[in-house]
Write a structure and sequence with these properties.
It is built from 5 helices and 7 strands; from the N terminus they run αβββββαββααα. The protein is of the alpha+beta class. The protein has 2 domains: about 70 residues, no CATH class; about 60 residues, no CATH class. The strands form 3 sheets. The protein has a 3-stranded mixed beta sheet, with no helix packed on it. The protein has a two-stranded antiparallel sheet with strand order 1-5. A two-stranded antiparallel sheet has the order 3-4.
Length: about 150
């Protein structure tokens, strides 16, 4: 075991963060004769973590084997892309607001429910921002009024 641990250290391997079953190996017995251990692990080196970003291991329930299958989920870190989206209440006063929201919300996507909501909101974001930049927007009118009063 000492040689194995030294090899892990020399190879500069680290454990991936994980979720799922705590024990990865079982003798498939119940009662007093039951034995469960964590024998299996997912490891990565520096290159793995910098290239693949936020990856993690998921330990699934054992099936045929006495060992639990492990899957590795990889999520690439996205670069920072500016400030988060801010909803402006004045957009709701635009006569096209509900029409635009309905058009985007009825679109269908082949994805998980959470991802579908994410995609709909993402596509809606650009359309809503256009309300604030149109020449007839309330913000522009207020700026013109302010400019007129300050003269």
């Amino acid at each position: 075991m000492k040689d194995f641990n030294n090899t892990i250290i020399k190879s500069e391997l680290e454990y991936l963060s994980c979720s799922g079953f705590q024990f990865t190996c079982s003798n498939m017995r119940t009662g007093v004769g039951a034995v469960s251990k964590k024998l299996d692990s997912a490891l990565g080196n520096w290159h793995w973590f910098t290239t693949l970003g936020d990856s993690f291991a998921v330990y699934h329930p054992p099936c045929i084997s006495d060992h639990s299958p492990i899957s590795i989920n990889m999520r690439i870190k996205l670069p920072f892309r500016g400030r988060p989206f801010k909803f402006l209440n004045l957009w709701t006063e635009n006569e096209n607001f509900l029409k635009v929201v309905r058009q985007e919300w009825v679109k269908t996507y082949q994805a998980t429910l959470l991802m579908v909501i994410h995609l709909k909101l993402k596509s809606l974001k650009g359309l809503l921002k256009a309300f604030g930049t149109q020449p007839d927007s309330k913000a522009k009118e207020l700026r013109l009024q302010q400019h007129t009063f300050q003269r």
